[in-house]
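User: I've been going back and forth on whether these two constructs are worth ordering. Before I decide, could you fold them both?

Assistant: Sure. I'll take them in the order you sent them. The first construct and its structure tokens:
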Amino acid sequence: MTQQTLLAIVGVFIGIAIVVSGSAGSGNWLGDLLAVFGRVMSMVTTRYATATEVSMTLMLETVLAPVWAYLFFTEVPWINSILGGAVVLITILAYTLYLTKEDS
């Protein structure tokens, strides 16, 4: 086990301890726990993917937030949110197509 993986595991346990103790967080323990886990996993991911790929994937979190809000809470997103998300998704798609052409 590498030092970075060990530190990530320790970070998850520290995050869990903080959330469970109630000393920090939003009061939504499951959401806080998943946020800690997601951040640690995105840190570990940088070992296996390029920084560009990781940052583009993290952009999807922001782009897909209105979609999840609509699906789970029937909250209709503003047109600006839809247009901005479309720009980011088109950019990610274009970059992915560029990489696949470059590899073949």
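The second construct, handled the same way:
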Amino acid sequence: MALDRLAHGIAAELRDLAAATEGLAAALCADPDIAGRCLGLLQQFDLIAQSQCELADLLLRLNAGTERDEALQAMRLAGMAERLAQAA
């Protein structure tokens, strides 16, 4: 039961980090000079936020008893799913 609470706490932290990352990206994109010069770099913030949310979802699926392969197949970021599958 303590591990279950910990998994949910970690997932919440990851989602909070994703929201903070998205907020930072939005603030930077609001500056037309920064957005114009750094659009490619700013798009990386979106990938970071998506990755954090995917990891949170994966953690909760595994914590709920979903088999590893099924949990990885449910991921929306194929590259991350492949890397994690190779690591497992």
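Notes on the second construct follow. The mean pLDDT is 95. The chain has one domain: 2-87.
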